[in-house]
Amino acid sequence: MSKKLPIDFLDERLNQQLAKTGLRFTVQRRHVYSVLLAKRDHPSAEEVFIRAKEKMPDISMATVYNCLDTLVQCGLVRQVNHERGATRYCSNMAEHHHFYCDECGGAFDIDAEPGSGQPEIHMPPGFVMNHFEITLRGLCPECAAKQTGVRRSVSSSAP
Amino acid sequence: MSKKLPIDFLDERLNQQLAKTGLRFTVQRRHVYSVLLAKRDHPSAEEVFIRAKEKMPDISMATVYNCLDTLVQCGLVRQVNHERGATRYCSNMAEHHHFYCDECGGAFDIDAEPGSGQPEIHMPPGFVMNHFEITLRGLCPECAAKQTGVRRSVSSSAP
DNA sequence: TCAATACTTGTAATTATTCCAATTACAATC
DNA sequence: GATTGTAATTGGAATAATTACAAGTATTGA
Fold first, then answer.
1. What is the CATH code for B94-147?
2. Tens digits of pLDDT across chain B (159 residues)
3. Is nucleic acid strand C under 7 Å from B70's C-beta?
4. What are the tens digits of pLDDT across the range A83-102?
5. Among 3.30.1490.190, 3.30.1330.80, 3.20.20.10, 3.40.50.1820, what is the CATH number of A94-149?
6. How far is the CA of A62 from the C1' of D13 (A)?
7. Cα angle: B87, vertex B91, B93; to 5 degrees
8. Closest C-alpha among B135, B134, B156, B136 to residue B145
9. Which of A29, B64, B107, B142 could disulfide-pair with B42, CB 3.0 to 4.6 Å?
10. Residue A26 CB closer than 7 angstroms to strand C?
11. Would the CA dihedral through A89, A91, A95, A98 be positive or negative?
């Protein structure tokens, strides 16, 4: 009960951001955040729950939802919604876009050109834009290779 | 059965697109499509259902979902997902972006500059991009006016 | 007209998420 | 170190959105 974890970058950042909003540092929040940082494949809340349970078997789904919300609130994680499925969570806060593969459903981060700023969009008068997001769709390298390499498998195995 | 409706643009387009995919023209599909064209405010499935019931009281929720799926399938309507809420449907197939008001939740179409093409994004090798979408967030004219204390002056037409 | 098939309908089931009330943990103070 | 007020966690119930299914109805083509 006394092993002091080294205050690494994760803790520091988390602590800092939580403090800003008057929220507490808890082991659950820390753990959920570490799960998101460990594998940045935009997991859904349920996937986070499953991964979190590996090292923290008693954590509850409600807590995962709470922690994710907290992390989003304090600006360490962002929520991404794509298609009809569950909301997904992304711990990459650098400016980037999201690419979704139509074939395998995978999500990929596409770095934004630093300083590329916002695309040239002519906003009608009166609108105040705070945020923009570019979502790309198509085929990821793996799926693209399959489609062109092997002849177009029109009657591929049922999904 | 008896009264032949004039084949207007709606019917023509719908028929054409349905035929392409081997789907049938039905009164429910026509009606759901007309609801989407009548008010282009990106209604959710449930809102479509409510509006559709006005003139077709017997239509069911299941049919609305089916029809919406069909319309999306045959390229007359697109699905837009924003935040956690319900999926919304948009009948504007011209190239445009979506603006969501953080305050009132309203959705607005922002026309893309014709020929502006896609934003300059450096895709990592191997990715095949088929589609991109820009989502904007901020304040709509009405909510922006309220926030700055400016009375409802410039912004006029409500959605 | 009749059969084949597509479509619609109502309902049940599923999925994703939120809500809530009861504990439990934490931080500050005595 | 005990006390206390507050915040966080927990499990389960509740809700919202969507999908699945089985039965009935409409439409098309022969």
1. 3.30.1490.190
2. 433 334 467 788 888 888 888 899 999 999 999 999 999 889 999 999 999 999 999 999 999 999 999 999 988 999 988 877 789 999 998 888 889 888 888 888 998 876 566 667 788 899 999 888 888 989 989 888 887 765 444 433 333
3. yes
4. 778 899 999 988 888 998 88
5. 3.30.1490.190
6. 13
7. 115
8. B156
9. B107
10. yes
11. negative
We find that the CATH architecture of domain B9-80 is Orthogonal Bundle (1.10)
CB contact under 8 A, A125 and B154: yes
Length B80 CA → C16 C1' (Å): 18
Domain span(s) for CATH 1.10.10.10 in chain A: 9-80
> Can you give the pLDDT at residue A150?
52
Contact present, A33 and A18 (Cβ < 8 Å): no
Question: What stretch(es) of chain B map to CATH 3.30.1490.190?
Answer: 94-147
Q: Which residues contact B113 (CB under 8 A, 6 or more apart)?
A: A120, A121, A122
Query: Are residues B127 and A108, on separate chains, in Cβ contact within 8 Å?
Result: yes
Closest Cα in chain B, distance from residue A145 (Å):
8
In angstroms, rounded to a whole number, what is the distance separating the alpha carbons of residues B76 and A60? 43
